[in-house]
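Notes, p. 3: input format for complexes.
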Amino acid sequence: MRLVFLGPPGAGKGTQARMVSEKLGLPQISTGDILREAVRRQTELGAKAKAYMDAGELVPDGVMLSLVDARLAEADCHRGFVLDGYPRTLPQARALDEVLSRAKQRIDGVVLIDVADDEVVRRLSRRRVCPQCKGLYNLDADPPKVEGVCDQCGVELITRTDDSEGTIRNRLEVYRNETLPLVEYYQAKGILAGVPSEGGIQKVFPVIMEKISRLRQG
Ligand code: AP5
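Output follows (218 residues plus BIS(adenosine)-5'-pentaphosphate):
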């Protein structure tokens, strides 16, 4: 199954995409994680992406298309994948459809997680991430067992550089301008399933799984 997770920053795309990918045994492809790892390793891609990411702007489509094409061509994606944070512009969505159709494949479902702006700011200012396993935490909703330390790796948790209030507000604006048109794009294809991100992480997950199983039934 080929799934896309769509939604504003802080909606819970990464949190839920990870849970769904584990449940379905499919790789989670987070473009944000791939880019942050490239920045951390100071690669050519990282150098191209860093300034955009720090400002809460999108990395140019040309960079993203070749990055995602190469990742989707890897062997673990042949049975399907869970895309988290991609596509997020119309050119990216069209290019993804083209690449898949060349392989006689298509996106089976798009999960749109929605959340109010003030909740986004609240969540992201309380988010902590593991730089090693990319594990996600929230000091309110999902804290680590030991303060400041990843449950899985024992590594010190960090705050993302784009999780300051000013950058979060800009990311929300960019989402509205660049990514929101994808809602109509996927609605027209009849593969969009909306899920409100309310009631905590564990309550949202079964709602998403239910929507995915309906999409599976066609
Ligand atoms: P990316 O990493 O994709 O960031 P984003 O889309 O802004 O989304 P976030 O990762 O901030 O939030 P999320 O929805 O995954 O929420 P999470 O699960 O972490 O992209 C970063 C940057 O990379 C972009 O700004 C851009 O520069 C670049 N980029 C990436 N992809 C690109 C692309 N395709 N094209 C161009 N540029 C691209 O949850 C947030 C917090 O809330 C956590 O603390 C979590 O524990 C908590 N939480 C989750 N669910 C709940 C819940 N139900 N209740 C309470 N708390 C919750």
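The pocket of BIS(adenosine)-5'-pentaphosphate is lined by residues 7, 9-15, 31-32, 35, 52-53, 56-59, 64, 85-86, 88, 92, 123-124, 127, 136-138, 141-142, 162, 171, 197, 200-201, 204 (CB under 6 Å).
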